[in-house]
């Protein structure tokens, strides 16, 4: 009991002075400090390499899972944006999604609960509400609710960080452009010395007696210029 209160011979607990007590009270670090360990012993209590590798592997796996989650949310957002871009109607006299004109002979229109736009019954989804009458959502608003539910945006009140996928068509077009550039022959400009060296060699071959003052050139010069 006395060892627990005052410490044993190997572990001495020293009560600090008033100034240290006030400082440690502001730092929320306790009312006494341990003095039986030296600075070298405290530095020796570092993590081993195996423990550091284990911690880093856990952090790396968590980062990979975070990236996978961002890609998953990005695919949901991309699907919602594609639905918005594919809408062709005005939502007033036409169906917002398919563009069908409303009238006596066409399908009846329903009003979306969220965006207050008119859609046909084929492009609308009936939801069960607290009211007795049926409530409708357009497919865009229904998909938006699904994105908020599956991405956790309902909790954060905003879409979390996400990575939208790059369209395969854009990648294919870029690959085709790169392949076409690689297939095109590289135009090389003929050096200035090409025609001069060629004329000198031809003159030596045709008129050997009148070309004594010309420099001594052989066919290797022409081959070098061609390459």
From TrEMBL:
Top-level lineage group: Eukaryota
MF annotations from Gene Ontology: small GTPase binding; zinc ion binding
PROSITE patterns on file: RABBD, ZF_FYVE
Biological process annotations from GO: exocytosis; intracellular protein transport; regulation of calcium ion-dependent exocytosis; spontaneous neurotransmitter secretion
Occurrences of domain FYVE-type (ranges): 89-146
Pfam families, sorted: FYVE_2
Keyword presence, Metal-binding: yes
Keyword Methyltransferase belongs to the record: no
The protein's name: Rabphilin 3A-like (without C2 domains)
Organism: Cyprinus carpio (Common carp)
